[in-house]
Amino acid sequence: MNSGELVLNWEKKHFPVKIEFATDDIVMANAAEELKGPTGFSWQVYSSAANYARQNKGNQEKALQWIDQAIAQNKNFTTLNVKAGLLRQVGKTADADKLDKDAITLATEAELNQYGYQLLGNGQHDEAIKIFTVNTERHPESANCWDSLGEGYATKGDKENAIKNFKKALSMNPPANVKANSEAYLKKLGASGSGQ
User: Fold this and answer.
1) Is 14 helix (H, G, I), strand (E, B) or coil?
2) What is the pTM of this model?
3) 73 three-state secondary structure
4) What's the domain range around 192?
5) Is residue 40 situated within a structural domain?
6) What's the Cα-to-Cα distance from 71 to each of 23, 82, 98, 125, 155, rounded to whole Å?
7) Per the domain annotation, does 89 fall within a domain?
8) CATH code of 114's domain
9) CB within 8 A of 109, min separation 6: which ones?
10) Strand, helix or coil at 30?
11) CA-to-CA distance for 165 and 154, rounded, in angstroms?
12) pLDDT, tens digit, for every residue of 62-74?
């Protein structure tokens, strides 16, 4: 929220006063100052500042400098993913797609899972299913990966593949939270059972 209204009451008179802040400008200026100090030596700080600019469509030129600094310190899924998002915003889609592929090769199970859910949240069902599938290929022993793939299919409306993947997750003796999620989805989809 960038603004609010303060109402001063004096006897029977009301004086509304609108207060506005250029929040993004303030945050970007603060980030620039912080990065000049001792906290600026951490790749996480550069990455966070660049990601804030990406999410709020702030100074993309400065954000690209920051994310390049983060990548120079630690080339990982997070830093490459943030840079890909920034490149996409400035119209460099081919470069962004290449970085996304590089980021995916470096991603951990948890990072791929989170990225898949991010894509689902953006309504990119097919892309999310691709990411969840990559995760099941890399981590076939993880019930959580199969459960997430099931959610991808369920969200897309592919009931058959959703059921198949939830049952796969349940067949692996999953942790309680994964078991509960798979069972809830199966019930919602009108299926039951814990085998393939």
Assistant:
1) strand
2) 0.73
3) helix
4) 107-196
5) no
6) 27, 10, 15, 29, 34
7) no
8) 1.25.40.10
9) 135, 138, 139, 142, 144, 145
10) helix
11) 10
12) 999 999 999 999 9
**Listed range (79-88, 154-163, 186-195) with the worst mean pLDDT:** 186-195
Task: Report yes or no on 113 lying in a domain.
Answer: yes
Instruction: Tell me how many domains the chain contains.
Output: 1
Q: Which two tokens stand for residue 1?
A: 């929220």
53-106 pLDDT tens trace: 898 887 889 999 999 999 999 999 999 999 999 999 999 999 999 999 999 999
Task: Kindly state the tokens that stand for 168.
Answer: 């796969």
46-79 CB burial, b ≥16 within 10 A, e <16: bbbbbbbbbeeebbeebbbebbebbbebeebbbb
Residue showing tokens 């049952």: 167
CA–CA distance, 36 with 185 (Å, rounded to integer): 49
Crossing angle of helices 43-55 and 60-73, in 10° steps, is: 150
Whether 17 is in a domain gets the answer no
Distance in angstroms (rounded) separating the CA atoms of residues 124 and 121: 7
In three-state secondary structure terms, 59 is coil
Euclidean distance between CA atoms 33 and 41, whole angstroms: 12
